[in-house]
Amino acid sequence: MAGIEIHGVTKRFGDVKALDDVTVTFEPEKIYGFLGRNGAGKSTLINIIANRLFADGGSILIDGTPAAENMGVHDKIFCMSEADLYDDSMRIRDIFKWTGRFYDNFDIDKALEISKKFELDTGKRFKTLSKGYQSIFKLTVALSLNVPYLIFDEPVLGLDANHREMFYDIMLREYAQSPRTIIIATHLIEEVSGMIEDVVLIDSGKILFCEEVEKLMEESYCVAGLSSQVDDYCRGKEVVGTDQLGALKQAYIIGEREKIAGNDSLQFSQVNLQKLFIKLTEKGGESI
Amino acid sequence: MNIDTSGEIPIFIQIAEQLEDSIFTGVFQEEEKIPSTNEISALFNINPHTVLKGMNMLVDQGIIYKKRGLGMYVREGAVQKIRTKRQGEFLAKYVEPLVKEANKLSISKEDLFELIERGYDNGGN
Questions:
Q1: Which residues in chain A have their CB less than 8 angstroms from residue B48's CB?
Q2: Which of A32, A231, B24, B54 could serve as a FRET partner for A184 with CA atoms 20 to 30 Å apart?
Q3: ipTM at complex level
Q4: CATH superfamily entry for domain A4-212
């Protein structure tokens, strides 16, 4: 089967269970948002997929082939993350050349073209670049590689608004030109919510769900009104969180929107992805 | 065009509505090409599948059509079609909420008629 299939993957760091029996599939040619709070296990799972870490248990199949210690998958996956895997005294254009030798599907002309758009000086050495430009360089490498699985772990860290916009623009154009699986792990949910087709939510090392964004939005809503009326309405429904403001209560619900005829005092509205994320991952279900 | 990705309305519907509006106001003329899925996708940071879904809504309504290998074009008679559709929606979309709000504010039917007259006088065109 095509895709990245993750089955029962577990990883411990000492006493901490970083990943707890994680099973999820990333399908071909889809853009995923991989969301989770700090320390939820996002980077651990990404590093295991990219063969930078080994799982304690479970398996990962890439297009049906086991990923662990398999150099064949190296041509299929590229992972851009905060880790610097480069000789930092090399000039950017020389790193491009080396990348071309390691990856058959690296398009150096495209890398130079993208560098130009970002005004990345390819004559500079990696270590002399600012934090933002070091990220831009790594994004440029990722965007110039035509691999079926592209993973971005916090891609826009340190980028200003213009450069973030430019990255999303180039990424979507590349995706349209040659569709591939793109997995974006990010905290900037609002920025990517229109781009991602599916969302995978991880919390405390467990996958909470993997769902189409559009479907998720259809199936979740917010109801507001007097506390007692909201409580009555919520009975028997799946409430993921609430906010209280004096006598006013707001509840976030997953399920079909059931409107009660003749009741105008309850107000219904859409919940956005960020709000839903916060409510689902709030510790102890408390709100401030 | 302006797409609100955290808003009440699903993105593909916003895409369809805004394209429809641009056709209705003459930004895109009949038998003219409209921007491609990929252009709209990159400009607004929207997944191309979502954009296509919005465009297909307009295809289904006979407002735009696909020229193989060339892109999407505005169908002849699209403006009239949009006008007819919107006239059909006018009661539910504008008049009923207006009456509901007027009732909430205890504005009588006669007063509402008078306000509408005044709206015309103020040059609402």
A1: 172, 175-176
A2: B54
A3: 0.83
A4: P-loop containing nucleotide triphosphate hydrolases (3.40.50.300)
